[in-house]
Design goal:
7-stranded mixed beta sheet; 4-stranded antiparallel beta sheet; mainly beta
């Protein structure tokens, strides 16, 4: 069973930066997408950024575009989320998830815009890491 483990969360002041990591327990074969999702208290979980394992194509939600950068290191089986210019509204538990490219997930955007209910179909989830942005 593939496991995903997030790390890198913490507390920062507004304007600060954090880098999250999502490490897979083994090499991932085939076509897949890995995404970062977040859930703030009282809100639905939302897609933040997604990256394709095959060609590295990316997608960002409007709320983080220009501030966050997703990347991957296939040699380390790890996906990163560099978060700059953090705002209090970025405070949430951040999760990484993996799903296979198929009839439901056809593009990186398709994965990132899945509703919380649809996200339950994703193949693998990490345990989450807390990000708190506060002065």
């Amino acid at each position: 069973q593939l496991k995903l483990v997030e790390s890198g969360g913490g507390s920062v002041q507004p304007g600060g930066s954090l880098r999250l990591s999502c490490a897979a327990s083994r090499f991932i074969m085939g076509y897949y997408v890995i995404g970062w999702f977040r859930q703030a208290p009282g809100k639905e979980r939302e897609g933040v950024s997604c990256i394709a394992g095959s060609d590295g194509s990316t997608y960002y939600s409007d709320s983080v575009k220009g501030r966050f950068t997703i990347s991957r290191d296939n040699a380390k089986n790890t996906v990163y989320l560099q978060m700059n210019s953090l705002k209090p509204e970025d405070t949430a538990v951040y999760y990484c998830a993996l799903d296979r490219v198929g009839s439901r997930i056809t593009t990186v955007q398709a994965m990132c815009v899945q509703s919380q209910e649809e996200q339950e179909e994703f193949a693998n989830w990490g345990q989450g890491t807390q990000v708190t942005v506060s002065s």
